[in-house]
Write a structure and sequence with these properties.
two-stranded parallel sheet; disordered N terminus; Rossmann fold; three-stranded parallel β-sheet; 7 helices
């Protein structure tokens, strides 16, 4: 029997890629490597956490209104993944493992890594500290 959460995972894994904040920032900046890579992918997913980081950056920028419009446009073109109870379970496990290893990483990145594992997506990032999370698939572009 296919449970609803399992069906959700099957639909989401079709795209296979979850973007980290630094990749979206490079995209917004017109990085040709990121643009070319994204053009080749059929579906891209973005954690709601990444949008939060982007909106925070926009709020403190000199071009706040233009940056918010850019984020809103971007978020309408990708699938934004929400956090749920399963995400929180992964978060708790990952944070505890990192604590035991003595390898803390930023809190938001634990949430992002949790979502990559939850939905079986490869995380596209430029941050090496994600390698500390066991079971995560990383693509560095």
């Amino acid at each position: 029997m296919l449970l609803l959460k399992d069906a959700k995972k099957l639909m989401i894994t079709a795209g296979r890629f979850l973007l980290d904040t630094n990749i979206v920032i490079r995209l917004f900046g017109g990085d040709p490597i990121v643009i070319d890579w994204i053009k080749k992918e059929p579906e891209i997913f973005v954690p709601c956490i990444v949008l939060g980081e982007l909106f925070y950056g926009a709020q403190k920028s000199v071009n706040m209104d233009a940056n918010i419009v850019k984020i809103m446009d971007f978020s309408s073109r990708v699938k934004v993944l929400p956090c749920d109870t399963e995400t929180a379970q992964h978060y708790g496990s990952i944070k505890n493992i990192l604590r035991k290893k003595g390898k803390p990483i930023p809190e938001n990145d634990i949430w992002i890594g949790s979502m990559a594992i939850q939905y079986n997506l490869s995380l596209v990032t430029g941050d090496n500290h994600f390698k500390e999370i066991e079971g995560i698939k990383i693509i560095d572009i």
